[in-house]
């Protein structure tokens, strides 16, 4: 499998997910909003029955939870090592907008997991 992408939301609530494969390992890019960027990076891998996640977060960014949750879910459900790079930014985001962005990201992660379960 080479790579593919998913999208959800519109306007400033638009997010995208792009997948690249390195052998059986996965690199997932999650970006969107008005200024996609690199805000956090997480690496997840199986350790027996549990999943270990390590996360780096850029100064004053809040994407750490997005990256770590996505990496843990993908690795836990698909069983492969996963790196997630996340960066979503909208100016003066309201609580409801943040909630919608996170729901859009969850939708993309679920779509990816369903697709990967067919491949692995």
CATH-derived topology: Ribosomal Protein S5, domain 2
Helix content: 25-40%
Helix and strand content put the structural class at alpha+beta
The CATH class: Alpha Beta
CA distance, first residue to last residue: 10 Å
Summarize the structure.
The protein is α+β, with helices and mostly antiparallel strands and 120 residues long. It has helices at residues 64-78, 95-119, and strands spanning 3-8, 15-22, 25-33, 40-47, 50-57, 82-89. The chain is globular.
Task: Furnish the topology, listing elements before pairings.
Elements: E1 3-8, E2 15-22, E3 25-33, E4 40-47, E5 50-57, H1 64-78, E6 82-89, H2 95-119
Parallel strand pairs: 3-6
Antiparallel strand pairs: 1-2, 2-3, 4-5, 4-6
């Amino acid at each position: 499998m080479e790579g593919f992408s998913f999208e959800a939301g519109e306007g400033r609530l638009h997010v995208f997910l792009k997948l690249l494969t390195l052998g059986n390992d996965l690199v997932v890019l999650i970006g969107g909003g008005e200024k996609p960027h690199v805000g956090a990076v997480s690496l997840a891998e199986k350790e027996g029955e549990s999943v270990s996640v390590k996360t780096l977060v850029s100064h004053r960014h809040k994407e750490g939870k997005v990256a770590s949750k996505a990496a843990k879910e993908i690795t836990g459900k698909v069983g492969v090592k996963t790196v997630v790079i996340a960066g979503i930014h909208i100016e003066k985001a309201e609580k409801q907008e943040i909630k919608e962005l996170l729901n859009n990201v969850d939708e993309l992660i679920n779509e990816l997991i369903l697709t990967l379960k067919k491949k692995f």
